[in-house]
From TrEMBL:
GO cellular component, one term: DNA-directed RNA polymerase complex
GO biological process, alphabetically ordered: DNA-templated transcription
SMART domains for this protein: RNA_pol_Rpb6 (SM01409)
Keywords: DNA-directed RNA polymerase, Transcription
Organism: Sphingobacterium humi
Protein known as: RNA polymerase Rpb6
GO MF term set: DNA binding; DNA-directed RNA polymerase activity
Length: 108
């Protein structure tokens, strides 16, 4: 996930609802588009994190053999600092970086 961390805030931001419905002319449709994109981002980040952490998995995990791996901790901290998928999706939607279509509107 290559995001520009400077442009996307890590905390919640108050948004003007009139800006959210510009692309769809319907606030609810905009929210559906944003939520679907947030789910896609979340799945991608989770897969990426699981892939990186699978390198550290050992076949015999015992309570006695648990040890801290500094590299594994750093990877986890990096992913914890990333902006939430919903914030990334809203930013992408507002900057027209999401392609979406509504088949029911195309039939009319």
């Amino acid at each position: 996930m290559n995001q520009n961390k400077n442009s996307i805030p890590n905390s919640t931001v108050t948004r003007d609802l009139r800006e959210l419905d510009k692309g769809t002319d319907n606030i609810y449709e905009s929210i559906v588009v944003i939520s679907k994109r947030a789910n896609q981002i979340s799945v991608d980040v989770k897969d990426e994190l699981n892939q990186k952490l699978s390198e550290f998995a050992s076949s015999n995990d015992n309570l006695e053999e648990v040890f801290e791996n500094r590299e594994q901790i750093e990877i986890s901290k990096h992913y914890e600092r990333l902006p939430k998928p919903s914030l990334v999706a809203v930013d992408e939607f507002l900057h027209d970086k999401i392609y979406f279509r509504n088949p029911s509107k195309e039939q009319d």
